[in-house]
Protein backbone atom coordinates (compact mmCIF):
# COMPACT_ATOMS: atom_id res chain seq x y z
CA UNK A 1 0.00 0.00 0.00
CA UNK A 2 1.27 3.48 -0.78
CA UNK A 3 1.97 6.07 1.83
CA UNK A 4 -0.65 8.87 2.11
CA UNK A 5 0.34 12.15 0.49
CA UNK A 6 0.44 14.30 3.65
CA UNK A 7 2.41 11.71 5.59
CA UNK A 8 4.96 11.43 2.79
CA UNK A 9 5.19 15.21 2.49
CA UNK A 10 5.68 15.64 6.24
CA UNK A 11 8.35 12.93 6.37
CA UNK A 12 10.25 14.40 3.41
CA UNK A 13 10.01 17.88 4.91
CA UNK A 14 11.48 16.67 8.19
CA UNK A 15 14.23 14.78 6.36
CA UNK A 16 15.40 17.93 4.57
CA UNK A 17 15.79 19.94 7.76
CA UNK A 18 19.43 20.03 8.69
CA UNK A 19 20.43 21.17 12.12
CA UNK A 20 23.39 23.58 12.00
CA UNK A 21 26.47 22.31 13.72
CA UNK A 22 27.19 24.16 16.97
CA UNK A 23 30.00 26.66 16.77
CA UNK A 24 33.06 26.30 18.96
CA UNK A 25 32.89 28.58 22.03
CA UNK A 26 35.48 31.04 20.66
CA UNK A 27 33.64 31.56 17.37
CA UNK A 28 30.24 31.79 19.07
CA UNK A 29 31.53 34.50 21.41
CA UNK A 30 33.08 36.44 18.54
CA UNK A 31 29.91 36.37 16.45
CA UNK A 32 27.61 37.25 19.37
CA UNK A 33 25.73 33.93 19.30
CA UNK A 34 26.70 32.83 22.79
CA UNK A 35 23.45 34.13 24.25
CA UNK A 36 24.83 37.62 24.83
CA UNK A 37 23.86 39.94 21.97
CA UNK A 38 26.48 42.22 20.55
CA UNK A 39 26.10 45.81 21.78
CA UNK A 40 23.93 47.86 19.43
CA UNK A 41 25.90 51.08 19.48
CA UNK A 42 25.77 53.33 16.44
CA UNK A 43 28.91 53.73 14.41
CA UNK A 44 30.97 56.65 15.75
CA UNK A 45 30.78 58.69 12.51
CA UNK A 46 27.01 59.27 12.70
CA UNK A 47 25.73 62.62 14.00
CA UNK A 48 23.04 62.64 16.68
CA UNK A 49 19.52 62.41 15.28
CA UNK A 50 18.45 65.53 17.19
CA UNK A 51 20.90 67.71 15.23
CA UNK A 52 19.63 66.65 11.78
CA UNK A 53 17.64 69.01 9.56
CA UNK A 54 16.40 69.03 5.97
CA UNK A 55 19.87 69.85 4.57
CA UNK A 56 21.71 67.09 6.47
CA UNK A 57 23.20 64.04 4.77
CA UNK A 58 21.06 61.02 5.68
CA UNK A 59 22.93 58.52 3.52
CA UNK A 60 25.16 57.43 6.42
CA UNK A 61 22.07 56.24 8.31
CA UNK A 62 21.01 54.02 5.41
CA UNK A 63 24.22 51.99 5.23
CA UNK A 64 24.55 48.40 6.41
CA UNK A 65 25.38 47.97 10.06
CA UNK A 66 23.25 50.84 11.32
CA UNK A 67 20.66 49.62 13.86
CA UNK A 68 17.11 49.60 12.53
CA UNK A 69 15.83 51.83 15.36
CA UNK A 70 18.42 54.52 14.57
CA UNK A 71 17.67 54.29 10.85
CA UNK A 72 13.94 54.71 11.50
CA UNK A 73 14.52 57.66 13.85
CA UNK A 74 16.66 59.41 11.21
CA UNK A 75 14.05 58.86 8.50
CA UNK A 76 11.28 60.16 10.77
CA UNK A 77 13.37 63.26 11.41
CA UNK A 78 13.88 63.69 7.65
CA UNK A 79 10.15 63.48 6.85
CA UNK A 80 9.29 65.88 9.69
CA UNK A 81 12.03 68.37 8.79
CA UNK A 82 10.81 69.25 5.29
CA UNK A 83 7.10 69.90 4.63
CA UNK A 84 7.65 69.32 0.90
CA UNK A 85 8.41 65.66 1.61
CA UNK A 86 5.18 65.23 3.55
CA UNK A 87 2.99 66.84 0.88
CA UNK A 88 1.35 64.59 -1.69
CA UNK A 89 2.91 64.47 -5.13
CA UNK A 90 1.19 66.94 -7.45
CA UNK A 91 1.51 64.79 -10.57
CA UNK A 92 0.29 61.61 -8.87
CA UNK A 93 -2.60 60.18 -10.88
CA UNK A 94 -4.14 58.68 -7.76
CA UNK A 95 -4.58 62.07 -6.09
CA UNK A 96 -7.55 63.11 -8.24
CA UNK A 97 -11.13 63.27 -7.02
CA UNK A 98 -12.83 60.49 -8.92
CA UNK A 99 -16.08 60.71 -6.96
CA UNK A 100 -17.59 63.34 -9.28
CA UNK A 101 -19.86 62.03 -12.03
CA UNK A 102 -18.16 61.70 -15.38
CA UNK A 103 -21.14 63.08 -17.33
CA UNK A 104 -20.64 66.52 -15.79
CA UNK A 105 -16.95 66.58 -16.57
CA UNK A 106 -16.65 64.94 -19.98
CA UNK A 107 -19.04 65.34 -22.93
CA UNK A 108 -18.86 62.53 -25.46
CA UNK A 109 -20.75 61.46 -28.56
CA UNK A 110 -21.67 58.16 -26.92
CA UNK A 111 -25.25 57.76 -25.75
CA UNK A 112 -26.71 54.96 -23.71
CA UNK A 113 -28.67 52.63 -25.93
CA UNK A 114 -27.60 54.42 -29.12
CA UNK A 115 -23.83 54.04 -29.12
CA UNK A 116 -21.62 56.66 -30.70
CA UNK A 117 -23.57 59.33 -32.58
CA UNK A 118 -22.35 60.79 -35.85
CA UNK A 119 -22.28 64.53 -36.60
CA UNK A 120 -25.84 64.63 -38.03
CA UNK A 121 -27.29 62.87 -35.01
CA UNK A 122 -25.41 65.21 -32.65
CA UNK A 123 -26.76 68.25 -34.54
CA UNK A 124 -30.32 66.88 -34.35
CA UNK A 125 -29.92 66.25 -30.63
CA UNK A 126 -28.69 69.82 -30.10
CA UNK A 127 -31.70 71.19 -32.05
CA UNK A 128 -34.11 69.13 -29.93
CA UNK A 129 -32.49 70.43 -26.76
CA UNK A 130 -32.66 74.04 -27.97
CA UNK A 131 -36.35 73.63 -28.97
CA UNK A 132 -37.29 72.11 -25.61
CA UNK A 133 -35.76 74.96 -23.60
CA UNK A 134 -38.02 77.96 -22.98
CA UNK A 135 -36.96 81.03 -24.90
CA UNK A 136 -35.12 83.52 -22.79
CA UNK A 137 -36.27 87.14 -22.61
CA UNK A 138 -34.49 89.44 -25.05
CA UNK A 139 -31.94 91.73 -23.39
CA UNK A 140 -33.14 95.23 -22.64
CA UNK A 141 -31.47 98.03 -24.47
CA UNK A 142 -30.99 101.35 -22.73
CA UNK A 143 -31.93 104.38 -24.86
Characterize the structure shown:
There is one protein chain. The chain is an all-alpha fold and 143 residues long. The protein has a domain at 50-87. 38% of the residues lie in helices and 3% in strands. It contains six helices and two strands, in the order αααααββα. It has helices spanning 5-16, 25-31, 68-81, 83-86, 102-105, 119-132; strands spanning 110-111, 115-116. Strands 1-2 form a two-stranded antiparallel sheet. A hairpin with a 3-residue loop joins β1 (110-111) and β2. It is flat and about 105 Å long.
Short description:
By secondary structure, the chain is an all-alpha fold. It has six helices and two strands; from the N terminus they run H-H-H-H-H-E-E-H.
Q: Name the poorly predicted regions.
A: none
Helix content: 25-40%
Mean pLDDT: 77
* Quaternary structure state of the chains depicted: single chain
Rg from alpha-carbon coordinates: 36 Å
Shape: flat
- Counting H and I runs of at least 4 residues, what is the number of helices? 6
Q: Quick one: biggest sheet?
A: 2 strands, antiparallel
User: What is the strand content?
Assistant: under 5%
Return the string of H and E elements.
HHHHHEEH
The main sheet orders its strands as 1-2
Number of strands: 2
Report how far the terminal alpha carbons are from each other.
112 Å
- Structure class: mainly alpha
Protein name: DUF3306 domain-containing protein
Pfam family, one: DUF3306
Organism: Paramagnetospirillum magneticum (strain ATCC 700264 / AMB-1) (Magnetospirillum magneticum)
Region (Disordered): 1-53, 124-143
Amino acid sequence: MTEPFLSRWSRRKLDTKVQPAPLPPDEARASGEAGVPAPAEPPPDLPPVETLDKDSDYSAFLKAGVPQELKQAALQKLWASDPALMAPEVMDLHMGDYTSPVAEVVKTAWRLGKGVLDAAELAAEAEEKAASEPPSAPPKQDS
